[in-house]
Amino acid sequence: MKNRDFTSLEVTDAYLGAIEAANPKLNAFISVEAEQARQMASASDKKLAEGAARALEGIPLGIKDLFATRGTHTQAGSHILDGFLPEYESTVTANLWSDGAVMLGKLNMDEFAMGSSNESSYFGPVVNPWRSQGATDALVPGGSSGGSAAAVSSWLCAGATATDTGGSIRQPAAFTGTVGVKPTYGRCSRWGIVAFASSLDQAGPITRTVEDAALLLTSMAGFDKKDSTSVDMTVPDFAAAVSRGVKGLKIGIPREYRMEGMPEEIETLWQQGIEWMKDEGAVITDISLPHTKYALPAYYIVAPAEASSNLARYDGVKYGLRVPGDTIDEMYELTRAAGFGDEVKRRVMIGTYVLSAGYYDAYYVRAQKVRTLIKQDFEKVFAQGVDAILTPATPSAAFGIGDKEMAADPVKMYLNDIFTVTVNMAGLPGIAVPAGKDSAGLPLGLQLIGKPFDEETLFAAGRVIERATSDDFSPEKWW
Amino acid sequence: MTLVDTRTPNPDYFIAGATGDWEMVIGLEVHAQVTSESKLFSGSSTRFGEPPNNNVSFVDAAMPGMLPVINEECVRQAVRTGLGLKAKINKRSLFDRKNYFYPDLPQGYQISQFKDPIVGEGEVYLDMGDKVGEVTIGIERLHLEQDAGKSIHDQHPNMSFVDLNRSGVALMEIVSKPDIRSSAEARAYITKLRTILRYLGTCDGNMEQGSLRADINVSVRKPGGEFGTRCEIKNINSVRFAGQAIEYEARRQIDILEDGGEVVQQTRLFDPKTGETRSMRSKEEAHDYRYFPDPDLLPLEFDDALIEELAQNLPELPDEKQARLMADYGITKYDAGVLVASRASADFYESVAKGRDGKLAANWVINDLFGRLSKEGLDVRTSPVDAGQLGGIVDLISSGDISGKIAKELFEIVWSEGGNPAQIVEQRGMKQVSDTGAIEKIVDEIIAANPEQVGKVKDKPSMIGWFVGQVMKATQGKANPQAVNKILREKLGL
Q1: Contacts of B239 (CB under 8 A, 6+ apart)
Q2: Cβ A312–B106 below 8 Å, yes or no?
Q3: What's the pTM?
Q4: Of B253, B285, B309, which residue constitutes the final position of a domain?
Q5: Which pLDDT tens digit goes with each residue over B29-60?
Q6: DSSP code of B107?
Q7: Omega of the bond prior to B36 within 30 degrees of 0, cis?
Q8: Is the pLDDT of residue B171 over 70?
């Protein structure tokens, strides 16, 4: 576009066409803003013509439905926000637009970002563009940012915003062969992002390449005085760090991530990653993160607790869905019964329970103590000179939509977050990079965990994996 | 909180019952609206009396994705108040969410401070008069929290309306220890607290506008005995109602106990029309608020420098001012207490008293001016007589230019017509005659004209009053009474 070989409008139209063709099958977008996209693209073309192009000038993006976008569909994948059109723009998306990016529309997601398969969306499941070799069964793209991952993977947008509370960026990225970055807590403003679990939520990008992720995050990040938990630190030029390499870096391999019953393929991939790091001059060191096994149970106390409170505002009084009742209590009950899906209800109930008088100390307080211990595990390792930690991103490749085992036992679904959730509990940055494939030809990802506000090392190490892998992460087009 | 009994039972407060005397134990939670331009966690205005939903931001309406940001001025106001209550200031405190559903609570939770409040233990002193003396009421804590909006039920047959203007306005909840032992003390406590808040400028104290509300915990016991089961009377918005509600509630509890019943812990409402309290909800029906630290807010932390800065700029508070007025102007504790009830009246008094007779000034300010003001429904800020004018009147009395009686007439003139007192006295010939020559002449004339009376006064010296009256009549009250007395005594040989 900078060379004026083609215009942003042409690119935008091409993406809009691709969405129109693919969406009935993939269901990645739940709202397409074609007219607005063309307007934004035309404005970018003007800037490009003036030679005043900004960092992301004219680049069409998809936006997860969790981000408030002024005047356009913003429902967090839920029925309860029916008809809600915010009068404000989230800080992260506002940052993207002020850098010239173009919004194509809103991306499907698990309802209120609760889920690991994108099956809890009120707007129906997203279908993974990837299929097992020789099969036509529909697979999940992961979640909660399943729409973002699927759309990027299937070329329906140049990049996408996503959010990650327990793995919601990195797990779908791993399932779709895309790059997903969960930045340090406080790096991106949460203002205008529908809250799931406030102390864990972070926005980040999902892209095709590590460099694209670096470019997007540079625009998305930054201090925002409207979010008291955002951190006042300068945002480095992340793209400049991508080609840094890992020579001399100390990469930690946590022994606790070697789970019992972990598929051989995952183990092999992990070993491969270690070899690539060594080949590029990194020093590999075994480390211990002893409280890892408590992370998932503690997460499933802290996150639902916060969610139960954050979702109290969806009561039918002010906006969104209202199911009338004879009394105010009846209106609350009918509205929330109709407006929330099963997974959201389950977590609201868990959260309400763990915060109740008599249970608070046994659950919430203990979970917070565990969280402190997990954080200390990482602090100790980083204090010993470890620069980044390499782990698998997920315990498996993408699974089938409507998987009976997972549907029958929510805990099985929760186990998808086993490698990612510690990062959120400790507030650290993490990146998932496609690294290999399983025997069915489905993408698998590796995860790198960094020191607070050291996303740069993750981009550098992520790029090493991206360069080293011989696999192609373009799904075969069937849609 | 552990309950500690700090008081010695005072028989003056005992309530007689069929089974003997009873004593009240009272603790208050006062909700004071913080004086600030904008709300506790949003930039919306706090102005009172705006059209419904005029002062509402996306944060106040709990729009999805909105986040609270602490208003530093509210923090400063809370610290100032803590300093004014001689309380411990906690340099680190936490905001918690108090979760419950209500239409005028848009977030579905109130942001409050539960475990770690911004202000800890402090004290308020009450002067309960000669019999009881000074009483110290302990402050348990002060914390910051959001106010809720207002539900309006009378606009539609089966719907309620919600006004969010007050949603998110900063409140200070000031919790006393259970140190109060009578309705009089409770009233004095609210009044004193309000005075302190007004001096500090941290709350306007306007109870009728809802800026100051009290939840009152009342229990009864045999004097000095174990604490009884308490009931909480919610949302009292006048000092008078506080007294009535406590009296009613204590009696109700005594009657239950004397009938062999048990007091049930519950929340009650006071009905000003009947003067009674009625049950709102019992302990079993109480909400489980599921408090937990608000993850949208960092711990509230500040350093000693902030506390010192605020402490240095604290105004003189009523107790200190009272002591100083007594020392500087030689007035009684009672008078000083009346004068410091508001900063404006104390300031007024000081303008009058400065460089003058403090006692005389206090008499005129309290008895003549305040008396008249309250009769007319005015206060010192709307007084038609200003401090300079009243000072002028005091000057004229002190110099002997006018008598006390004339001074009262002069005060009336200044009150209704205004003007400079000295000029009025001059122009209207109100100056008292202290010229002994002139008075002697009149005295001589009266003695000469009343030989009969002169004869009687020798045997009955108290009859001198009659002579004084004659002289005053002859001088239209302008003769200096002391001078008249002296000359009469000389001439009559008394």
Answers
A1: B187, B190, B191, B207
A2: no
A3: 0.92
A4: B309
A5: 999 999 999 999 999 999 998 999 999 999 99
A6: T
A7: no
A8: yes
DSSP structure class, residue B169: -
Give residue B70's pLDDT.
98
Q: Model confidence over B420-467: pLDDT tens digits? A: 999 999 898 888 776 778 888 888 888 888 888 888 888 888 888 888
Residue A101: what pLDDT? 98
Residues of B in contact with A199 (CB under 8 A): 295
Question: Would you say A178 and A150 are in contact if contact means Cβ atoms under 8 Å apart?
Answer: no
Residues B444 and B389 in one domain: no
Judged by phi (left if over 0) then psi (alpha if -120 to 50, else beta), residue B65 lies in left
pLDDT of residue B3: 79
Give the residue carrying structure tokens 């307007």.
Answer: A39
Residues in a beta bridge with B139:
B122, B176
Q: In 10 A of CB A385, how many CB atoms?
A: 11
Q: How many domains is chain B built from?
A: 3
Question: B477 in the Ramachandran plot: left (φ > 0), alpha (ψ -120 to 50) or beta?
Answer: left
Domain boundary at B260, B281, B309, which?
B309
Backbone CA torsion sign across A163, A166, A170, A174? negative
Kindly state whether residue B132 falls inside one of the protein's structural domains: yes
H helix intervals, A254-327: 264-279, 295-310
> Mean pLDDT of residues grouped by 10 in chain A (479 residues)?
92 98 98 98 97 97 98 98 98 98 98 97 98 97 98 98 98 98 98 98 98 98 98 97 98 93 92 98 98 96 98 97 95 98 98 96 97 98 98 96 88 89 98 97 98 98 98 96
B440 close to B461: Cβ distance less than 8 angstroms: no
Q: Which residues of A belong to the active site?
A: 64, 144, 168
What residues in A contact B65, CB-CB < 8 Å?
67-68, 86, 88, 90, 190-195
Provide DSSP, B38-66.
B-SSS--B--TTPPTTSS--TTTTT-TT-
* B103 to A317: CB separation less than 8 angstroms, yes or no: yes
Cβ atoms of B443 and B450 within 8 Å: the answer is no
* Rounded distance between C-alpha atoms, residue B35 and residue A383, angstroms: 47
Alpha carbons A378 and A388: distance in angstroms, whole number: 10
Q: What is the pLDDT of residue B1?
A: 61
Do B54 and B121 fall into the same domain? Answer: yes
> Is any Cβ of chain A less than 8 angstroms from the Cβ of B103?
yes
B68 touches A: beta carbon within 8 Å: yes
How close A410 comes to chain B (CA, Å)? 25
CA distances from B393 to A244, B376, B379, B399 (A): 88, 21, 20, 10
Model confidence pLDDT, tens digit, residues B286-344: 789 999 999 999 999 999 999 999 999 999 999 999 999 999 999 999 999 999 999 99
Cα angle, residue A457 at apex, residues A243 and A273 outer, rounded to 5°: 80
Q: Pick from A89, A310, A330, A335 the residue to mutate for testing the B interface (most B CBs within 10 Å).
A: A310
Q: To the nearest whole number, what is the mean pLDDT of chain B? A: 94
CB pairs under 8 A between A and B: 100
Q: Is B279 on the interface with A (CB under 8 A)?
A: no
- Residues from chain A that touch B108, judged by Cβ atoms under 8 A, are 309, 311-313, 315
Looking at the structure, tell me whether residues B328 and B273 fall in a common domain: no
Indicate whether B4 belongs to any domain.
Answer: no
Q: For an interface test with A, give the residue of B66, B297, B298 to mutate (most A CBs within 10 A).
A: B66
Q: Tell me which residue range forms the domain holding B483.
A: 436-492
Asked if B292's CB is within 8 angstroms of A360's CB, the reply is yes
Is residue B352 classed as helix, strand or coil in its secondary structure? helix
| Residues B128 and B170 occupy one common structural domain | yes
> Do both B326 and B287 map to the same domain?
no
Has residue B460 been placed in a domain?
yes
CATH classification code of A8-226: 3.90.1300.10
